[in-house]
Amino acid sequence: MPPKRKASMTNNKTKKPKTIPKKKSTVAVATHLYEEWFQGYADNDTDLGITPEGMQRFLTDMGANLESIDSILVAWKLSLGRMGYISKQEWMEAMENWNVQSTDQFKSMLPIWQAELANDEVFRQLYLYTFAYAKTTGQKSMDVDIALVLWDLLFETRCAHIPKFVEFIRDVRPVKVINKDQWSSLLDFIKTIPYNLEGYDSTLSWPVLFDDYAHWRKQKDL
Amino acid sequence: MNNVRKSTTRIRPVKRVQNTDRGHDYDEGFQILRRAITEIFYKNAKSLSFELLYRTAYNLTLHQHGERLYEDVKSVIANYLESVAESTIVPAFVGTTTVTTSLHSMEGNADGGASFLKTVKLLWDDYTAAMTMISYALYYLDDKLPKYNLPRVTVMGLDLYRDKIIRSEKYPIQNHLITSMLNQIQLERHGDVIDRSAIKQAVSMLCELVDPTTKESVYVTDFETKYLETSTAFYQVESQTLTTNYDAPEFMRRVEKRLEEEEERTTHCLAMVSEPKIRNIVETQLIANNLTIVMEMPNTGLEHMLTSDKFEDLSRMYKLFSRVATGLTEMKSEISKYILHCGTEINRRVQADSGSTAPSDNKQRSTATAIRWVEQVLVLQAKFDRILDVAANKDKSFQTTFNEAFEQFINENAKSAEFISLYIDENLKKGLKGKTEDEVDDILDKTIMLFRFLRDKDVFERYYKQHLAKRLLFNRSVSDDAERGMLSKLKRECGYQFTNKLEGMFNDMRLSAEMNTNFKEYLDHSTKEYDLEPSVTVLTSTFWPMNLSGVPKCIMPPKVMDACRAFEQFYFARHSGRRLTWQCQMGTADVKAQFQSSKHILNVSTYAMLVLLLFNDAQDGLTAEHMLELTSIPKPDLHRTLQSLACAKYKILTKQSKGRDIAPEDVFKVNEGFTANLARIKIQSVASKVETDTERKHTQSKVDEERQHQIEAAIVRIMKDRKQMEHNLLIAEVTKQLSARFLPNPVMTKKRIEALIDREYLERSPDDRRAYRYLA
């Protein structure tokens, strides 16, 4: 189990994925199935359950593209707590929730989930979840390098700001970690401020990091 | 009683007078009146019977002929006026009808113009007198006129005069009249003497006539408009003339004269209704249009006046400029620029000074520079106080402008807080010696005034503390009263919090003095013998600006250690739960030194004492490096100590190498041949001076650290109170609350808000991105 976090930290789990009511009679059977399935991926040397290597296999089997947002999407839907790991308890709970019995069944759900992401609100939930999920557990903030990778991953080509923002951080290295406030504010920032930074003003309440970004853009005249 | 006959008396009706031919009566009556009127006009009224005229008019009016009479009278008068215009006025026309401005063509016309006016005036006088008489004669009719909706006879007379004479359509009387008047005025403006009564009479005549459409007097509609036009033209030219030919003070004097002249003329021969208008013209043309020109006149303009303290000229300028709307604003802005210029000069000189001197003299010079800076600013301030007083009539808005300018350039100098503190320091150490209480008060008050201008008061506080600490510990204050006086002034300015710690420092000194007395008694009663007389000052760490942790323990000789331990025993017996840390860098010691030919008592710093005592056991001298080992005094401090002992005025030690620099292998020996006049010598070592750049940075970082705490405290305080607040409002409120101490950098404030969000004191409001909420 990941170390105990402050109550507020668990806010990232803002929305639980939809649950499907389950029937009692099939519970016992399903449990057995789930366990077997779990063992297929688990790393037996540790008691952490599924470790990164097994995780990769699982994802690939599910048809998720490891280089894309899919891996995070799946983690979110399964309510996982730590990037790259699935504990037995998490596995059992998730599979029960989704009432999934086979790999194919699971596979078929992935496209539905992907489609849901078109909804801004759904995407926002995913984005906010990613912070707690992906940062090093025990720390309050996320390493800036991890953040950069994730942003590229999450946004891909969704937003013109992101590649520039990533470039800015790589270039200037203003911070070593990204805190929760900066992470969540970024989403609002992309939505509100146009790419050409029109109307942006450092007297607004955006975090100082964004002020520096705007300043850097203006200097480079990009 | 017998012969009474009864007679029948009959009452017969009254015989009525038959008035059949009313018209006939009218003509007869009117003839009388008409002849009479003419006689009156030709000044033959004496021959008339007033009673007859009155009766005639009365009868005619009574018989319902009033209106007809009125109209007929009117036409009689009108005819008269026309004839008299032709016969009397037109011949009196003079020259051309254009208003000339050239003197030559005017001169010839001058008298002619006046005489024309007089002619008109005569006519008017006669006419009004006649009209009065006529109206008396027609008194009964006059009374009844309102019934017919007709103006009274006198009014009718005035209107006729207006239309037939002044505004005559046949003859250009108006033109001549107005032109003559204007020409006369022009002549007077050019310096000639004219007959003012002529104009005055003409003006009063025009004032009595009323224009039917505007209901204003004919003076206003016919004369005044033209008058104002020509005056504007005149003063436009005058403006050019004055600005090209005269320097600023002379220009202003002449403008003043013109203003006086116009006012006088208006009072004496024009109507007062024109006064504000003509004044406005003069003010606009001569003053308002020339504000910048006058102020910027080379060699004599505002700058020169300010530099050379030309109070009279400045006063005149103030009075003149205050007449026009933008005058004072412009003047203020120019003065403000001047102050800024002077201030920047003063600042620049400081930079130049500190850059040019040799490094070794730098420290000495720079204190002097600081003092010089302060004195120059004080001189500048005194000057402008005087200007405000004498020239600007203590105008509050001027004071505000001056203050803003001072504030600006004082805060542009990054070292101003330090300089002011050094100035006070210097005064409290030496400068105030011998001055009376009032003089002392005066100097301190002036410094407080400068202090008010500082934006970053917390920086000043830091320096003041440092300097005060040194003064107190080395007993350099020239007067305790003065110190306390300064403190109470600061308290009045900034409140209790500011001076809290400073007062603590004073307190510590007092308590230490008491403690020392007790300690001495304690030593006297103790059994152990001590070679030295220790005197200890105990400082409460939070009050004093020391780096406690930064001072490594220096190695003291055993005798000194014994004394220290004795004190510790004594102290802990009295106070428990306290920790004592010995500060070697702040103490002093009196050392008895025996040289070859003389004995002296040397008053030195503790470090110097440690160094000197080493030589008791090292007759061959010591290297700097060795001394470093033996005493563990921090290297820069050791070097400074050695310099003060070997390279300063009194050379107690000899140094092997030349110059002030100290290399590790430099050998120092006691200067056996040392002599001096005084038995007791004070070796200076740690004086307050202007900081080096590294020291500045250090101080600045401490200040910034303190500020971050202050900002966070302010934010939490405000948010706790308001619960929710919008970003910009929060920043504004924080700035306001901290303004008494310093001006917070908005970026720093923003960063502090973010830090507080991270530490979960605040959160961003979920409804409004721009607002924050307090988290309990």
From TrEMBL, chain A:
Residues 29-218 form the DCUN1 domain. GO terms for molecular function: cullin family protein binding; ubiquitin conjugating enzyme binding; ubiquitin-like protein binding. One of its GO terms (cellular component) is ubiquitin ligase complex. Residues 1-22 are annotated as: Disordered. Coiled coil: none annotated. One of its GO terms (biological process) is protein neddylation. Pfam families: Cullin_binding. Neddylation of cullins play an essential role in the regulation of SCF-type complexes activity. PANTHER family: DEFECTIVE IN CULLIN NEDDYLATION PROTEIN, RP42 RELATED. This is Defective in cullin neddylation protein.
UniProtKB/TrEMBL annotation, chain B:
Residues 415-646 form the Cullin family profile domain. GO terms for cellular component: cytoplasm. Gene3D superfamilies: Cullin Repeats, Cullin, Chain C, Domain 2, Winged helix-like DNA-binding domain superfamily/Winged helix DNA-binding domain. InterPro entries: Cullin, Cullin-like_AB, Cullin_homology, Cullin_homology_sf, Cullin_N, Cullin_neddylation_domain, Cullin_repeat-like_dom_sf, WH-like_DNA-bd_sf. GO terms for molecular function: ubiquitin protein ligase binding. It holds the Pfam family Cullin_Nedd8. Belongs to the cullin family. This is Cullin-domain-containing protein.
